[in-house]
Structure formats: structure tokens, C-alpha cells
Amino acid sequence: MIRAAVVGYGNIGRFAVEAVNAAPDIELAGIVRRKAGDKEMFDLPVVEDASSLGKIDVALLCVPTRNVEETAISYLAKGISTVDSFDVHSEIPALRRKLDGAAKAGNAAAVLSAGWDPGSDSVIRALLEACAPKGITYTNFGPGMSMGHTVAAKGKDGVAGALSMTIPTGTGVHRRMVYVQLKPGANLEEVTALIKADPYFSNDETHVIAVPDIDALMDMGHGVSMTRKGVSGKTDNQMFEFRMQINNPALTSQVMVSCARAVVRQKPGGYTMIELPPVDFLPGERESWVAKLV
Amino acid sequence: MIRAAVVGYGNIGRFAVEAVNAAPDIELAGIVRRKAGDKEMFDLPVVEDASSLGKIDVALLCVPTRNVEETAISYLAKGISTVDSFDVHSEIPALRRKLDGAAKAGNAAAVLSAGWDPGSDSVIRALLEACAPKGITYTNFGPGMSMGHTVAAKGKDGVAGALSMTIPTGTGVHRRMVYVQLKPGANLEEVTALIKADPYFSNDETHVIAVPDIDALMDMGHGVSMTRKGVSGKTDNQMFEFRMQINNPALTSQVMVSCARAVVRQKPGGYTMIELPPVDFLPGERESWVAKLV
Question: Of A148, A190, B83, B184, which residue has the fewest beta carbons closer than 10 angstroms?
């Protein structure tokens, strides 16, 4: 059995506990939180310091993206492998170099950006490049809630609550449907102007709509449609499409848990999912998966 | 540059030459055929024995599936890595064990069953298992020509030419639309009975249709729709779909050529595509693909 700690207990952490419990080959060593106060909530150890959990093979870092680097380095230094779902695409190469170094120094391994995008979508993009090396891949997100855009909208004067939905209009272009619950006395036209001026929204078609109760709109579903039209050898017009409609934190944490298997199978170093054999994500013996899936 | 020989020059071999020529990092050492007679067709060496091509890193085995094992073993014994598109699903585990042994003995590597199914579809199936470990994956083929069924239909008494189209009706169930060009005096009812009694067709809904000229129907396009509905952690109803509409031999040979990169990057042994990091299918440095795709 692989012993895993879930570090952080927000949305992703809660779903990660469920995914660990559903895995036949992984056991939950415990949950690590800054405040272990409500430990009576769980049948499992909730601690502030992972060292009180005994031997741990993998730490599943269910912390905010901005805390991933520091947290990962602290675990890797102790020789504990890590899996995270760091999601700032442009900063992944730099994080990979840092965690690669930290992992080798600690004789452990790190899988970074193990979610659905970045993550499983990245694997599809790599595979489609191999299938049709020339061409264009479009990744279309949604319909679903964008965390970053929602936080940006919520921060505006006059906004009590917000939800920014990402709506795909094809070829990687997105519409932003922003639902706002206004503070008493706030003016929708002014709020709309503030939101549309924000760099998060200024380049996209954005609609701002006032609603009386933002909580009534909340839904953790999300979707992707990725398309590639390209060339295999000299043959044009090869068409590929990958679609999914999923619960967002459930898929993110499931991918992290599947990567907990992969991370203990790698040599020390830092890896993204496109650098790992897909069979390593699966429990049990390679040969049975070759027989079942190939 | 990776030096590759194309072994066999049927449909797949012709497309493999195009894919090698389109690859920035692979050069064509030459073509190996049983009869090198028509060498004036090409600007490239066409030989009967690969040893006259100088140093070769990879042999792309574009030979019939039934000749793959013997051909692969002969190249691996010489220390030349191989890529094939062996496509009898049930026999892949046994072939993998044999080529694994032969590759290790020859200090080379073999990637087997590198086409689209088995092949790139297998990678998708593995990834979807990691995303939703519980659930059902359906692989729906077509519309497109089935080689095996076409050969079976063509072999019947009274049939001058045949084309068996695979039509997906969902949930992995397929209809067979069999077009036959009858020999003079042959009877459609009798031919239909022979075809429907064949184990290739007896379990599927099969329609047999007489046409005056079978060549007028030939088209190398094919398609796949794979769906998985499953459970991530404890969350049901996660929905995934992968679709493609492709030229069949062009994609098969492109996947083989992409695997020529992967095979030279592995330790000695035999591998299916689910056992290889997807980034290894792509030319150039890992880090640039991490930045572009992850």
C-alpha cells in the first residue's frame, strides 16, 4: 500500500480524501491542515505537522497554487514525494526545474500540475501532436466556473458576490458570463464598467448580469472540448476531438491520486504528466493493463 | 538525426516514407522489400537486406501483422530497435514478452502495436481509467473499412471483390455493411448466406449489398468515438469522449514514426504505447514541450 497524506482541506482536499479512500492500493495516512482544531470531524488523524503521521510515501498538495512551491520543497526535503495541481501554465517550466532539483536532493519525486488542465488535457495535447505533427489544437473551456475570473469580479466595489462562467465560442475563444449579487445601493452600470475594464475581462466578450442570490447559481461542473485538425505525414484534414463534462474538484483530485501511484514509480526528479507513462497512473501490474487496454 | 529504415512497402510503408520525410529529426536510410526490383521508383535506396543501408537506429516494420514477430526478432538480434503496428489485440501480451526478451538480448528496444487501435486509442483508454477509475469505456469504430472483414467476405465463393464497412451503432456495437462485386452467374442470396455464417459476421447485424464495381467505393477514411462515463473518487457521472475522423494508413504510419523517437529514448526492452511518456513521441527537447503543451 502507498501511504498518502492529504495536505490542505479545501475543496480539492475533501475530494482527494474520497479518491484515496476509493483507491485499492493507497491508504490515507492523515490530513495535514494549518489548524487541526476540528479533528473530531474525521475518523482519521488531522495534524498540523506531517511528521506526526508516521512514514508517508506521498503528500497530495491540495493547497492554493501560490503555496505549492514552498510546500512541495518542504516535503521533498524530507524525502516525501509530492503531487500538486499547480495551474499557472506560464510558470510551470520554472516550477518544474525547482522541484526537479529539490526532489533529487531529497531522493524523492514530484509530479506537478496534475489536474485536468494542466494535467490530463496536456497528455491529450501531446498525443495529438504525435498523431498529427502539423496543425492547430484549440482548447475550449466550459461551460463552467472560472475561479480566477470569479475572484476578480468579486473584488469590485459594489459586488457582494460573483460567479464568472466561461462559455466556449469555439477556436479557443471564450465569452464571460458574469453574475453579480450587488451590495445595497450599488449600480449595475458602474459595476459592469469596473469588471469590463479589468484585464481578466477586457479582451473577452463579457456580459454582466445582476442576480438576487449568487449562491443559487453555484455548480462545480465544468467542461472541455479540445480539437485538432492537422497533418499526418503528408495527409491533411486529420480530425480529432476530446470532450468532457465533469465535476471540477472531483476530477482534479482523482488525477492527483492517480499520479500518487506514478510518483512512487519514478526515479528522483520533477515531472509533468506528459513525461510519465500512462500505465503508471493505474494500480497493479503493467501486464494486466496491457492486456486490458492496448 | 535518427536513421530509420522502412521495412515493407504496402499501404503503411508508403505513408511511413511520407511521415519520415516530414519529420525534422528522422532521416530515411532506405526501404527494405522482399523484391528490390523497382528501385528506380525512388530517389532512395531500396534493398532486400537492411545490412546494405549502413547504420540504422530504427526499423519501421510495415509488414503484415502475421510477419511482425519474426521480422522484429531478426532486427532486434542485430541491435536495431523496431516499431510495429501489430493489431491482434488478444495476442499483444505474448508478443510483448517475446519482443521484450529479444530486445534486451540485442541491447535494443521495441515499441509494439503502435498504430491508432491498438496505439493512440490505448493511451486515451489508459488516461480515462486514471481520470475515472470506475465506469465503462466504449470504443466505437467507423464508419470505415475493416480489413479483416473485407478479406473474409472476399474469400467467399462467388465474390469477385468486397468491402466491409464498420458502422458504429453505439456502446461498442457495430453493424457490418458488406458491399460485394459478384462473379458472373453468382447468386446474391447464396453469397449473403455464406458471409452471414462466417464467425467474422455471425454475431453482428450484417447487410450484404451487390454493387457493379467495388473499386468505386474504396476510401481509406476511418473513425473512432470512445466514450467513458465513470466515477472520480466518489463523484459519479463524469463524462468523457474522444472522436477522430482520419485517413487510416496515414495515421497508423505517423504514429509509428512518432514512436521511432520514443524507441531510441528507452532502455532495452519491449513496450506498448501506454508504457511510454507521451513527450517521448515528440521531436526536440522535453522542456520546450512542457512549456508549450502542459
Answer: B184
Q: Is the peptide bond before B268 cis (omega within 30 degrees of 0)?
A: no
The reported pLDDT for the residue numbered A43 is 77
Check: CB of residue A178 under 8 Å from CB of residue A161: no
Cα(A120)–Cα(A29) distance, rounded to whole angstroms?
A: 26
Nearest CB among A96, A129, A232 relative to B19 is that of A232
Torsion sign across C-alpha atoms A256, A261, A263, A266? negative
Residues near A66 by Cβ (< 8 Å), separated by ≥ 6? none
CA distances from B87 to A8, A173, A278, B91 (A): 46, 39, 20, 8
Mark yes or no for CB contact B234/A274 under 8 Å: no
Length of chain B: 294
Best mutation site among A96, A254, A292 for testing chain B: the one with the most B CBs within 10 Å?
A: A254
Query: Residue B213: which of B181, B178, B179 has the closest Cα?
Result: B181
Q: What is the mean pLDDT of residues A72-77?
A: 98
Looking at the DSSP bridge assignments, the partners of residue A46 are A31
Q: What would the pLDDT profile of A201-253 be if each residue is shown by its tens digit? A: 999 999 999 999 999 999 999 999 999 999 999 999 999 999 999 999 999 99
**Interface-testing mutation among B261, B290, B292, with chain A (most A C-beta atoms within 10 A):** B290
| d(C-alpha B130, C-alpha A123), whole Å | 12
pLDDT of residue A37: 65
Residue with cell string 467474422: B200
- Is residue B36 within 8 A of residue B48, CB to CB? The reply is yes
Per-residue confidence band for B12, with pLDDT thresholds at 50, 70 and 90: very high
What's this model's pTM, rounded to 2 decimal places? 0.95
DSSP-assigned states of every residue in B44-88 = S-EESSGGGG---SEEEE-S-GGGHHHHHHHHHHTT-EEEE----
**What does the alpha-carbon distance between residue A74 and residue A72 come to, in Å, rounded to a whole number?**
5
Q: Measured between alpha carbons, how far is B220 from B249 in angstroms, rounded to an integer? A: 7
In three-state secondary structure terms, A206 is: strand
Contact B282 A129 (CB under 8 A): yes
Neighbours of B202 (CB within 10 A): 10
User: CB of A194 within 8 A of CB of A200?
Assistant: no
Please give the grid coordinates belonging to residue B287: 522542456
Task: Extract long-range pairs of B169-175: CB within 8 Å, 24+ residues apart.
Answer: B169/B205, B170/B138, B170/B140, B171/B138, B171/B140, B172/B138, B172/B139, B172/B140, B173/B204, B174/B140, B174/B141, B174/B142, B174/B204, B175/B204, B175/B205, B175/B206, B175/B207
Judge whether B55 and B3 are in contact, CB under 8 Å. Answer: yes
Q: In chain A, what's the furthest Cα-to-Cα distance?
A: 66
ipTM of the modeled complex: 0.95
d(CA B81, CA A46): 51
Opening angle at CA A45, ends A40 and A48, nearest 5:
95
Query: Which parts of chain A fold into alpha helices (H)?
Result: 11-22, 65-77, 92-106, 120-131, 147-154, 188-197, 248-264, 286-293
Cell triple for B149: 472483414
